[in-house]
C-alpha cells in the first residue's frame, strides 16, 4: 500500500494504491492524519487503484470523513472496481460523497479537479 498526497492549492488529493487493510491501515492513518482539515477545505481520496479494502481500511476512511466534516471541510472519495462495489454494497453513497472520476465536481459544490 502506498499513499501519495498532491496539494492542488484549494484541494488536497490523497492517491491510495494497493491493499488498504489491517496490515497497512496504520500507515494510511498516519498520512490521513496529516491532511489539512479546516473550514471550507476540500479533501479527495483517490481509491481507484486500491486492490483490496477491508473493514479497518473502511474505518480509516470514515474516521477521515468525520475529522474533515467536524472541521467544516468536505471529503470526496473517488472509487472504481473493488472500492466502488464495496461502497455500493454498503450504501455509503448516502453518507459519503463518492464519484468515479477524479475530475468530477463534488455533489456538495466542491471544486472540480482537473
Automatic annotation (TrEMBL):
<dbReference type="InterPro" id="IPR036513">
    <property type="entry name" value="STAS_dom_sf"/>
</dbReference>
<dbReference type="Pfam" id="PF01740">
    <property type="entry name" value="STAS"/>
</dbReference>
<dbReference type="InterPro" id="IPR002645">
    <property type="entry name" value="STAS_dom"/>
</dbReference>
<protein>
    <recommendedName>
        <fullName>Anti-sigma factor antagonist</fullName>
    </recommendedName>
</protein>
<comment type="similarity">
    <text>Belongs to the anti-sigma-factor antagonist family.</text>
</comment>
<dbReference type="InterPro" id="IPR003658">
    <property type="entry name" value="Anti-sigma_ant"/>
</dbReference>
<feature type="domain" description="STAS">
    <location>
        <begin position="1"/>
        <end position="114"/>
    </location>
</feature>
Amino acid at each position: 500500500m502506498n499513499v501519495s498526497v498532491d496539494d492542488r492549492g484549494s484541494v488536497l488529493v490523497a492517491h491510495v494504491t494497493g491493499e488498504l487493510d489491517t496490515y497497512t491501515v496504520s500507515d494510511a492513518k498516519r498520512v490521513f492524519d496529516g491532511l489539512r482539515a479546516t473550514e471550507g477545505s476540500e479533501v479527495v481520496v483517490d481509491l481507484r487503484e486500491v486492490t483490496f479494502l477491508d473493514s479497518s481500511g473502511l474505518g480509516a476512511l470514515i474516521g477521515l470523513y468525520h475529522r474533515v466534516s467536524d472541521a467544516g471541510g468536505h471529503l470526496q472519495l473517488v472509487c472504481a472496481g473493488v472500492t466502488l462495489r464495496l461502497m455500493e454494497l454498503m450504501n455509503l453513497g448516502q453518507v459519503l460523497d463518492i464519484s468515479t472520476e477524479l475530475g468530477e465536481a463534488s455533489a456538495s459544490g466542491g471544486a472540480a479537479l482537473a
